[in-house]
Amino acid sequence: MADNAVAEERTGERLVGIVLVSHSAQVAASVAELAQGLAGGGTAVPVAPAGGTEGGGLGTSAELIAAAAASVDRGAGVAVLTDLGSAVLTVKALLAEGDELPAGTRLVDAPFVEGAVAAVVTASTGADLSAVEAAAAEAYSYRKV
To answer: Which of 22, 58, 63, 139 could be bridged to 115 by S-S, CB 3.0 to 4.6 A?
Structure first.
C-alpha cells in the first residue's frame, strides 16, 4: 500500500482504488497480487485485500473492509468486489450507513477473480469509476470454452 501512495505522489494521478473482499485473507491477498501482476507495467493501482476476520479466521469484517477502502481512496472513487454471501451483505450494510466508507465507494457486481483483474487493469489506465465498474462487470461474459 505504501508503494501505491508513492506511485500516486509521483504521477499526480487520482486513481480508482480497488478493495477485494473475501471470506479468506489468503484468497483476498492472492487475488490482489494476481490482478496487480497481470496489470503489467502500467500505473500502480491502489489495491487492498480485506479478507477474513480480525482474528485471522474465515468470515468478513466491516472494520477490515472500511480500513481497506480508506487506504486505497485517492479521490477518484473506490470499487469494492466481493466473493459471496456475507461479504456482499457486509459491504451493503457499510454503504447503507453512509459514513463508514469513502465517498464514491461502489459495490461492483462482478466475478471475483476475473472482475478483479479487469478492474485493476482498467484502473491502471486512469479510467474513471464507471469504466472500472463496467470492465469488472463485463467479466461475467468471459467465455472459457
So the answer is: 139
For residue range 74-97, what is the model confidence (pLDDT) as tens digits?
A: 999 999 999 999 999 999 999 999
Instruction: With a cut of 70, say whether residue 25 has pLDDT above it.
Output: yes
Per the structure block, which three cell numbers stand in for 41?
A: 507495467
- Residue for cell digits 461492483? 108
DSSP the chain: -HHHHHHHHHH---PPEEEEEESSHHHHHHHHHHHHHHTTTSPPP-EEEEES-TTS-SS--HHHHHHHHHHH--SS-EEEEE-STHHHHHHHHHHHHSSSS-TTEEE--S-HHHHHHHHHHHHTTT--HHHHHHHHHHGGG----
d(Cα 132, Cα 89) in Å, to the nearest integer? 21
Residue type, 22: S
Phi and psi based region of residue 106 (left: phi greater than 0; alpha: psi -120 to 50; beta: remaining): beta
Rounded CA-CA distance 14/51 in Å is: 25
